[in-house]
Amino acid sequence: MSDITIIGGITADIEGNPYGQLARGESNPGKISIAYGGVGRNITENLARLGADVAFVSAAGNDFVGRAAVQELKQLGVNIEKVSLLDDENTAMYLSILNIVGDMELALCNMDVLERISIDFIHDAMKVLKASKIVGIDANLTEEVQDFITRKLHDAGIPVFLDPVSAPKAERAKKMIGRFHTIKPNRGEAEILSGLSILNEEQLRGAGRWFSQQGVKRIFITLGSGGVYYKEGEREGIIRPQAVHLVSATGAGDAFSAAIMDAHVKQMDIEETARYGMAAAAVAMEAKTAVNPKMCLESIDEKLRKGIFNLSLLNNNVLIE
Ligand SMILES: Nc1ncnc2c1ncn2[C@@H]1O[C@H](COP(=O)(O)OP(=O)(O)OP(=O)(O)O)[C@@H](O)[C@H]1O
Ligand SMILES: [Mg+2]
């Protein structure tokens, strides 16, 4: 049994970058890269690198990608007993072909295996979930499964954390939003979850109030380069990032999510948690990959020591990004 259990997707992201103009119906020379992804998997890897006691619940194909992804997590110390490698499915994959200027020309998305994380599948892992200090889910899970998990764990008094993954996927978590203890949407995801428009600080506070009224205890709305808005009870604020060394912003949100779950286990207060999350996001942004292999407590400490943040007092009504 682990302190933190994550339930979510494992994906392989395959990206093709042509060396010249793309020609349809032909074989184009170019660079092809493959990387692991999946918000749940990324959060789990970040947590393992932070030294957290973490278990992962997921499904992938019994193919070389799925086996390797699980092996990597195992080597990092993740409890992978509840990850199923299925013979009759392939690992979830996202295949994209970009054009010469780096815009996506065509993509194919094969997420069928994630549907196999069914209610029965979760039922089978319930002992592990109920023994955790916090359970995190990503919105790759179906609405029915999210409904089942949040109902069972809410009744059992186990805090559940949500990363909504993307604005379209955030729809799936809307109905049961009040059963989450902590949520970390970005601004677009928060708009979908609340049905409110969030264009300035006043509307941001309005959304924070709305989530609180639904029953969410801790709210973190990440704002990309604008930092993060946080709220717990009467305590709220915005922390702005300063002097971030940006290599790639992909995966910054996943690192933020991982860190705030680690902070929950370490019983940090809301402001400390928000700073810790931002420091982890700053570390994530220093690598090209979604998860920075250099993610560790020491790198986060270094960011915190450098004081890369600015606490804003939420009294000016300016645009967020
Ligand atoms: N361009 C940036 N400059 C400075 N900080 C950034 C930038 N982009 C992201 N961050 C930091 O990372 C945190 C999370 O980023 P963001 O709001 O983009 O999450 P997200 O949309 O969930 O990202 P992801 O692509 O990982 O899902 C922000 O709160 C901020 O601290
Ligand atoms: Mg995100």
UniProtKB/TrEMBL annotation:
The keyword Kinase applies. One of its GO terms (molecular function) is kinase activity. Keywords: Kinase, Transferase. Residues 1-292 form the Carbohydrate kinase PfkB domain. Transmembrane segments: none annotated. The keyword Transferase applies. Pfam families: PfkB. This is Carbohydrate kinase family protein. It comes from Clostridium aminobutyricum.
